[in-house]
Amino acid sequence: MLPRAVLLSICGCLLLTSAQAFVPAPARSVPPPSSSTALCATYNNVFVAGGSKGVGRLVIDKLLQQGSKVIALVRREDVAEDLNAIEGVTAIVGDAFDQKTVENAMDGCDAAITTLGGSTQDEGTRIDYVGNSNVIESAGILGVQRIVLVTSVGCGSSREAAPEAVFETLKEVLLAKEKAENVLIKYYTNSNWSIVRPGGLKSDPATGNAILTEDNKSIGTIHREDVASLVVQCLESPKTERKILTAIDPSIESAMATSAEVEAFLL
Ligand SMILES: NC(=O)c1ccc[n+]([C@@H]2O[C@H](COP(=O)([O-])OP(=O)(O)OC[C@H]3O[C@@H](n4cnc5c(N)ncnc54)[C@H](OP(=O)(O)O)[C@@H]3O)[C@@H](O)[C@H]2O)c1
């Protein structure tokens, strides 16, 4: 059993805000075997759930830079107002707990990204399963074939990457996100989905060193801006279709970073 202080530090690193790292054990990345030659797809109208803040908000910026238009579903009027002031963004106010709201907002889009997470303030009901599954279901109904779901290290096949005590602490969140992953994996076999699992998020500027990897034992701290870049690269790379990828930054020394070499996924 890990001491409480250590456990809290690791949990903070994995799924809360920007906790400090405490053991310098950076992962090393192995460069991909050759440079990518695959054609990238840029989508015209991308639906984003979770775009009010954090990774989702940064994803909106990256999509706009790539020339896509964004349709963002947000809960608050003031957030929608700010987003609607940005050229290329249409923000719709609504709750992702409601499937029809999600479907109406997504109508007309050719791709969908969801970074939904968290719980309601009053009852503490988590959005991680219901909201993400509403995005997936709506995409299915509308025929939106390209979906990128952002979950977390510790979900599904990456469970062993999270130390047991951390997994136990974050179990409810991780299992809810895993349930959403399973909806895609098991029932959307004809869709071009991708799952991106980051480790502990920090809101510092991008390092530009983050990678995606199929190594589901890897874990570490990563900056939200780097995750956002990887999510948009993932969206646009046909090679990531039906792939589950961990987002990791080998240049960051963090409490949970694996010391083994991590092979970068060739986008
Ligand atoms: N924090 C970490 O260390 C960590 C680690 C691994 C994975 N993750 C996951 O990575 C993703 C991005 O994390 P983040 O910390 O950058 O973002 P975040 O702060 O968790 O953002 C979650 C987003 O979901 C939205 N949302 C929640 N409930 C909603 C609802 N009912 N209807 C519509 N929107 C709703 C939030 O909108 P509001 O602004 O209205 O709340 C917000 O835009 C999340 O899924 C998170 O769980 C986080």
Brief rundown of the structure:
The chain has 267 residues and is an alpha/beta fold. The protein is built from 8 helices and 12 strands. An 8-stranded mixed beta sheet has the order 4-3-2-5-6-7-11-9, sandwiched between helices. It has a two-stranded parallel ribbon with strand order 1-12. Strands 8-10 form a two-stranded parallel sheet.
Give the CATH H-level superfamily: NAD(P)-binding Rossmann-like Domain
Bound molecules: NADP nicotinamide-adenine-dinucleotide phosphate
Unreliable residue stretches: 1-10, 16-25, 33-37
Q: The CATH topology is what?
A: Rossmann fold
Main sheet attributes: strand count, strand direction, barrel closure: 8 strands, mixed
Number of strands: 12
Count of structural domains: 1
Number of helices: 8
Radius of gyration: 17 Å
Distance between the termini: 39 Å
Question: Rough shape?
Answer: globular
Give the name of the CATH architecture. 3-Layer(aba) Sandwich
Strand % is 15-25%
Order of strands, main sheet, comes to: 4-3-2-5-6-7-11-9
Q: What order do the SSEs take from the amino end to the carboxyl end, as H and E?
A: HEEHEHEHEHEHHEEEEHEE
- The oligomeric status of these chains comes to single chain
What is the level 1 CATH name?
Answer: Alpha Beta
Mean pLDDT figure: 88
